[in-house]
Amino acid sequence: MANKSEYEKKKPGILQWILFILIPLILAATIALIIMVAAGIDVGGFAKKYANQVPGVSSLVSEEEKESGDVEQKRLTAAIDSRDEQIEQLESELEAKEADIKDLNEQINTLNQQLKAQEEEVEDTASNAINDISTSFQNMEAERAAGILANLEDDTALAVMEQMSKKTLGEILGEMDADEAARLTNAYAAEETQ
Predict the structure, then answer these.
(1) Could you give the CA distance from residue 143 to residue 146 in angstroms, rounded to a whole number?
(2) Of 139, 135, 143, which Cα lies nearest the Cα of 172?
(3) How far apart are the first and last CA of the chain?
């Protein structure tokens, strides 16, 4: 009996059991977990996979996933809303730019019409001036007209010659120096054939 009481005295208690068995097991599991994470093993995914199979724990894990899914959905919705606002802003800027382009095209058309009108006016003025000069040459003496015509620029001289009657032109060319008359006649003939 003495042995029995000694054994009962030495009987391991709960504290000793925790100290010698449970703490080393927790320590070994922690070290194993650290080694697996360092090795690149997805311990969290592995734990979720098996936790979903346990009835009480599966509801906790799926709630966590739902919460993370809700957060992700809110983030994505906010990103989509932000993109939609950017799209609307860019579309309004595009409409403004298109309106500006339309206004500028209208201004270009207006300016082109004004330019065309001014060119026609200049042509009419030049044509009237050439007609006036031609009439003046036809009314003056052939010798004097020949001297003036010989000193004009070729383009102007040819334009005046085109407006004269053939008889008056012949009289004026007859009064010119032969070389000058030949040069103007050749230029006039080339102009007439075009």
Answers:
(1) 5
(2) 143
(3) 147
